[in-house]
Amino acid sequence: MTRAETPSVDTDAAATLSRLRAALADGSFVRDGRVLPEREIAEALGVGRRAVRRALGALEAEGALWRRQGQGTFLSAPPTPMARRFAGLASLTSPAEIMEVRLEIEPVLARHAALRAAPVDVAAIRKLAERSRAAESDGDYERWDAAFHRRIAEAMRNGLFLAVFEAIEAVRDDPAWRRLREGTRSPARREALGAEHLDIVEAIAARDPDRAERAMRAHLGAVAQSLGLPAA
């Protein structure tokens, strides 16, 4: 094989990442909430374990999954000790109450993220927004959406606000609450919500706190409407 015919390592890595992302999105490589071992994924994709390990690392960096030594690899972000502490709140609140608190807290998070986010934060938030808009399933959108909102909360760089955000997410992550959201987002709706994510990113990138706050409030209002809840 000549140099011109030699496959690009970057191209191969990108292809492995793309195939792995698609398989995780449709649940092909997930069993009992855990991602299959590297060996099984490598065999299924017909690639080396090193390529799978690199792809899993890239997805972990994006916030799409997390790994814990001795326990395995899981989709979405890792539960924090604070989030686990608030998990019991799910039985004590309602969807309307959750949305009421989100509408009070998250626009403020977006406002301060526009003032404090580092360039690396903005890049990560933008990537998550793009993933959410391109999501091909409701479960896929759910993961990218959660990671997007959390990344904004982290970019604000205020531990107390982040703890409040984690309390909200702990309730929303309860299986019963997840089931309530299932089926409320058509492909067109997911794309529209993803576009709203991009509006928020652009405001943060422009360092425009008023615009970022308005964009987040408008987005959450649309989310509330899709769930049949009051937007304010």
Structural summary, described in words:
The protein is mainly alpha-helical and 232 residues long. It has two domains: 3-75, Winged helix-like DNA-binding domain superfamily/Winged helix DNA-binding domain (Arc Repressor Mutant, subunit A), CATH 1.10.10.10; 81-226, Four Helix Bundle (Hemerythrin (Met), subunit A), CATH 1.20.120. 68% of the residues lie in helices and 5% in strands. It is built from eleven helices and four strands, in the order H-E-E-H-H-E-E-H-H-H-H-H-H-H-H. It has helices at residues 9-25, 38-45, 49-62, 81-86, 95-116, 119-133, 138-155, 159-172, 175-181, 187-205, 209-226; strands at residues 30-31, 34-35, 65-68, 72-75. It has a four-stranded antiparallel sheet. The termini are far apart.
